[in-house]
Amino acid sequence: MQRIKQLFLTLSLVTLCLLSGVSSATSLSNYLENKLIDTFLRGQAYTMPTTVYVALATTSGSDAACGTEVTGGSYARVAVTSSMANWAGTQGAGTTVASSGTGGTTSNNNVITFPSPTANWGQVVEFCVFDASTSGNLLFREALTTNKTINNGDAAPSFAAGALTLQIDN
User: How many Cα neighbours within 13 Å face the side chain of 6?
Assistant: First the structure.
């Protein structure tokens, strides 16, 4: 199946125990590709998630599945409500109005912070975005440009506002 959309994800390195991001292109998950085709071309209803959940993984995944997600040590996916307040419009970082730009890019308007680790989480190599706080459907995933080992007692890992940039290839 040809990909109907591609995402370009970029994360910047921020201070403390911050995760650094990606510079390569990635595809939407197989699940989301199928939903887009069914919704836009086949007239099938799709209920958009009101919240998405950012996850961390210690192994690389694929379009079909996230890698091995971190477990234990106070780890939990981070909920980000789907809203114009939380995700920038395509006009640029920090915008909170409906998209009218031409670049097909959005980014997080607020810091995305994971819980402080109370055990070793291991070396994080990618992040994934799901439609549920546990299990759920993978929406997309991408490798970090710099792997980050997260240990017990480290500062809470986070992505700064504007650091998680998503661009749909147009």
Answer: 8
CA–CA separation, 52 and 144 (whole Å)? 19
CA dist 47 → 6, 41, 163 (Å): 21, 16, 27
Q: Which residues of 30-47 are buried (b: 16+ CB within 10 A; e: fewer)?
A: bbbbebeeeeeeeeeeee
pLDDT of 169 reads 63
Q: Cα 10–67–58 angle (5° rounding)?
A: 80
26 burial type by CB count under 10 A (0-12 exposed, 13-18 middle, 19+ buried): middle
The model's pTM: 0.82
Nearest residue to 54 (alpha-carbon basis) of 85, 87, 84: 87
**Tokens representing 135?**
């299990």
The average pLDDT across 47-64 equals 95
